[in-house]
Amino acid sequence: MLTMILAESELEVMPRELVNHPAIISFARERRKKPEFILLDSNYHHRAMTELSEGRRRGRPDIVHLFLLTALESIVNKQGQLRIIIHTRHDEVIYVNPETRIMRNYDRFVGLIEQLFDKKIVRSEEQILLELKQKVPLNKIVDELGVEKAIAFLEEGNAVKLNNYFKDLKKHKKKDIVCIIGGFPSGKFNCAIESIADDIVSIYPEMLVAWTVASEILVNYENTFFVKI
Amino acid sequence: MLTMILAESELEVMPRELVNHPAIISFARERRKKPEFILLDSNYHHRAMTELSEGRRRGRPDIVHLFLLTALESIVNKQGQLRIIIHTRHDEVIYVNPETRIMRNYDRFVGLIEQLFDKKIVRSEEQILLELKQKVPLNKIVDELGVEKAIAFLEEGNAVKLNNYFKDLKKHKKKDIVCIIGGFPSGKFNCAIESIADDIVSIYPEMLVAWTVASEILVNYENTFFVKI
Fold it and tell me: What domains does chain A contain, in order, with CATH numbers?
């Protein structure tokens, strides 16, 4: 089983500092929602966000959207071998049912996540699709998974060729792994990632977007651990 | 060099049959554009499109968007080893400069493509980013590339493990290849793909989205043909 965690992703409802900002009030009115139920989005709230601490890093539901579209449509997921977890900057955690069909339209996706932050759960007729829990830091998520190996992906990590790295894990019979990918646009983890991950690896000497890292993990995991498709 | 063609992609401006449709006129008015300059989009024009021939297949700029975000952000592209071509249902062809930074926001992407269909060219200050040419059928695009091997990806093709298939090409010293991926949501190619491609391969027994196929090609090409990163 492969678990992928998009960690410290920049997904949050409107922070208290901005709910009374004129631009946000007017945006919320247009959307016919209360400001505090609106998802922070640098694409739409860019100007107001200059007043926010770490404002250049925050408000990136687009990264989560593209990560989920990559992960859910992958062969590893279709084979039932993938667990997907979204962790946020405020230590919320979202468990994603592998059978979820995420909408490709971005605005509808944002609507879905706003509903999730409000109700803490999104279900279909038969099952829970998304579930949000609060106050679960990254180290606790990883601990609770109880996997054989936790690997964080970071530009500054130890350079590896991922296919060889996975082959090596296979040799040591470690198949049940968690891969931790940063869900923020650039910079470093805020948490002490070196005390959470067993290995910190780099698959390319420059910055890669989260969905490229996810693709590399998914295809190489499939190549290494699936004997037959 | 790897070339990826998204073939018969469902990218077109509003077809003549729909420019006078009341829903389209009202949509165009909201966007402050003339209907004939609007990109057909099943996400917004779903109802009007029921009156269109092949209406359930058409109007899918979202597939092109996700394909481009996957291809342009890949390691193969960052290494300067990727050529990206979009071919459309009406035999237009769009040459994509590898240095193009495609906007992640879908509506802005649609605006960019509308501009491209209007002006036939999108440039930055220094260079051409996107260029559209008309009346170039898929066989002509492939012929003009003059590559060593043209491979089409199709659910019904010959089942292969892509890493082994590429290794075999490498053994025969074929590195300069073109991979053809369908840019339509489901169904078959309209053209005679078997007379255009040297091989027709299947990497999974069920339908995959275009950006999953692209990921598989990109990561396996990188693993096979890049000795050093």
Answer: 1-11+56-229 (3.40.1280.10), 16-49 (no CATH)
